[in-house]
Design brief:
Order of helices and strands: HHHHHHHHHHHHHHHHHHHHHHHHH
Largest sheet: none
Helix content: over 70%
Structural class: mainly alpha
Radius of gyration: 22 Å
């Protein structure tokens, strides 16, 4: 690190705080703080939707996966993200946006009852602070490797920065900073892929120096016995491609909150579709450097894949460019943590505090509570950062959390939209059983009673078993019970949905056309890198 690198990094911190201060005067109501006033254009919400997912899990985690699992990591994008993002844009967003709900758990209150909403909100609140802690942990790793900073100092520095600009500017400050952070990430990591390709002799040189199974996207699925992932087609198509991914991209309030901030329904639908374009191309920024690290610095990353990205930056980047690369990493940490904190304060304020502690208070009261929840969320995130120390791959850790708290609960949303037969008691019972099955699957795996090809396969299958247990229990408990009348479920179930929507005159501006273009691109990439 040289003076130029430090100046770039310091400038980024100053710019982030400046945005928070400038937007502070625009946050006067609860809706402006929690949902940015629902008036943002699609290009901002689309980038924010993508950037909210670009925390340390995406950058450091997926680079680590590239080194650990090879090109199979592409599946996390092309099977584990794109289909679900299209589903979110075309199906889930209209349901959520039209109801004018303030959080995803609030849909469960409208569709089922209060206890189902509370259970989902509690699980999601736990997930957000644990995920926020992972982002803090990732930052601590980078600063320990590069500057020899103590872990505690790194965690506190990032936490205080996020706390300030989220408390000042709410979701609007978080979204504007996510747009800024997205461009920092792209420009900061693009040179690394170029450097890495040149160092290994291009794609041809890389293919000559790595095992064949590391260089295919689909081949490891059909030959699990000889691949690092170790899982078969069912775990990829059903576990990853449906349960885990559909649950995350269409029911995780962290990302869906960005669609709620859009100015109209069409913009809300296009938000995940626009983000899907960038998502399809992002393996170039993450998987490729991870593969190259196995050739360039194999001994340095042995035993701890989390270090892959910062070590590759140190290996290739000169002064000045290293500062930009570090700023990109810092941006990913800020983006991931801020997204989780804004989701946490909304769920805690509206789904828990307003419902059970102080209903019927003024908007100003809930705005203050939201800021207090922000402080609490950041404080809990600091403690949660130390839990991630026990995992050599932070994405494996997050996949475990996601499969338990999001994947299993997706059955409740899926059945709620699909059929009106499931009752509130059935939904609540199913979600409880789903959580228990997913946690039990992990405990049995850790004790060696059940076996999977890898921890990642266990995560996908744990979410699948929890999803199936949730759905089966909900249907069984609801069997023979009288469903709620149609008038109470209008707009909440697919068969009773509102079909009225203003459609753009030009076909290429319609959400469906955008979805088809993304699907064609994704299919082409799967064929090329099969």
């Amino acid at each position: 690190m040289h003076l130029a690198d430090y100046l770039i990094l310091a400038g980024y911190f100053a710019l982030v705080l400046f945005i928070g201060i400038r937007l502070r005067k625009k946050v006067r109501t609860g809706e402006e703080f929690f949902l940015s006033g629902r008036n943002l254009p699609v290009w901002i919400t689309g980038i924010s939707y993508m950037a909210a997912n670009l925390g340390s899990l995406e950058l450091m985690g997926f680079v680590a996966n590239g080194a650990k699992y090879g090109m199979f990591t592409n599946q996390l994008y092309w099977i584990g993200s794109i289909p679900a993002m299209l589903f979110a844009g075309l199906v889930m967003t209209p349901f959520m946006y039209r109801t004018k709900i303030r959080s995803v758990p609030e849909y469960l209150r409208l569709r089922y009852d209060e206890k189902t909403r509370t259970l989902n909100a509690t699980g999601f609140a736990i997930l957000t602070v644990l995920t926020s802690g992972i982002n803090l942990y990732g930052l601590a790793i980078v600063f320990q490797v590069l500057f020899r900073w103590p872990v505690n100092a790194s965690i506190c520095m990032a936490a205080v920065t996020v706390l300030l600009y989220v408390t000042w500017g709410g979701l609007r400050a978080s979204i504007f900073n996510e747009v800024l952070q997205f461009f920092f990430i792209v420009f900061g990591l693009f040179p690394l892929s170029i450097y890495a390709l040149r160092a290994v002799g291009g794609l041809h040189g890389l293919s000559q120096r790595l095992p064949e199974m590391m260089l295919h996207t689909w081949k490891p699925v059909f030959h699990p016995e000889s691949s690092p992932y170790g899982g078969g087609l069912f775990s990829v198509i059903v576990g990853l491609g449906f349960v885990v991914s559909f649950a995350y991209w269409s029911t995780d309030f962290l990302v869906m909150q960005r669609t709620f901030a859009a100015r109209d329904l069409e913009s809300a639908q296009k938000t995940p579709l626009l983000a899907a374009f960038a998502k399809a191309l992002f393996p170039f920024f993450t998987v490729l450097p991870g593969l190259a690290a196995l050739v360039v610095i194999p001994h340095q990353i042995s035993g701890n894949y989390n270090l892959t990205l910062p070590l590759m930056l140190m290996h290739f980047y000169p002064a000045g460019l290293l500062g930009i690369g570090l700023t990109a990493l810092m941006a990913s940490f800020m983006s991931g943590m801020a997204g989780n904190v804004t989701a946490f304060n909304t769920v805690c304020t509206y789904d828990l505090y307003q419902t059970y502690i102080a209903p019927g208070r003024s908007d100003r009261h809930y705005l203050i509570v939201g800021k207090v929840a922000t402080i609490a969320g950041v404080g809990i995130s600091i403690g949660a950062a130390y839990l991630a120390l026990h995992f050599t791959n932070m994405f494996d850790y997050w996949s475990l959390l996601s499969s338990i708290f999001i994947g299993t609960g997706f059955a409740t949303f899926f059945l709620g939209i699909l059929t009106k037969r499931v009752t509130g008691t059935g939904a609540f019972s199913g979600m409880l059983v789903g959580f228990a099955v997913a946690i039990g699957n992990y405990v049995l795996y850790e004790r060696g009673i059940v076996h999977y090809g890898s921890l990642l396969e266990m995560d996908f299958m744990g979410g699948t078993w929890g999803f199936l247990a949730n759905g089966a229990t909900a249907l069984l408990v609801s069997w023979g019970k009288e469903p709620r009348p149609d008038c109470e479920l209008k707009g909440l179930v697919f068969s009773l949905r509102d079909k009225r929507q203003k459609v753009p005159t030009n076909w290429f501006k319609r959400p469906v056309a955008l979805a088809v273009a993304v699907a064609v691109l994704t299919i082409a990439l799967n064929i090329i890198f099969r």
